[in-house]
Write a structure and sequence with these properties.
By secondary structure, the chain is an alpha+beta fold. The chain has 6 helices and 7 strands. The N and C termini lie far apart (about 35 Å).
């Protein structure tokens, strides 16, 4: 029996975090609308700033677990804010784990602005600091390009 996917933006976002912790990248990508857009406003030169469409998001995320082993998104650090647009949330969170290659700790704070329509992610602006990974590990940074 399949588990129904949450329809509210906040519930869908939390569901997506659980899929990432389970390393279920196909499941996470399945939460995306066909024409969804993922953006990285702080991406340094040479890194993707915009991924258009579910397939582009899938290609970007597919190798993620091979480079970053997420262990937790601590509930104490997760804040989901509703906006004037009921389809859009702002999420603050912290991802904790390790960089697979060197085995070093991974601890990153994120802010994301996420829009959901018809139970699918349509827009995801990820305001994370790629320089923090660049400073600690070039192998882990390669996974995020």
């Amino acid at each position: 029996m399949s588990v129904p996917v949450p329809a509210s933006p906040a519930d869908l976002y939390r569901h997506g975090l659980r899929l990432l912790l389970d390393k279920d990248i196909p499941g996470w990508v399945g939460l995306w609308a066909e024409g969804g857009v993922m953006e990285f406003p702080f991406a340094p030169p040479g890194w993707p700033r915009r991924l258009e469409g579910r397939e582009a998001v899938a290609a970007y995320m597919r190798p993620y677990p091979e480079h970053i082993d997420l262990h937790d998104f601590p509930e104490a650090d997760l804040r989901i804010h509703e906006t004037a647009d009921p389809r859009t949330i702002v999420a603050e969170m912290r991802g904790v784990g390790r960089l697979v290659g060197p085995g070093r700790p991974f601890d990153m704070t994120y802010i994301a602005v996420v829009t959901v329509e018809d139970g699918k992610f349509t827009s995801y602006r990820d305001y994370w600091n790629p320089l923090a990974v660049l400073e600690t590990d070039t192998d882990g940074a390669e996974a995020l390009r």
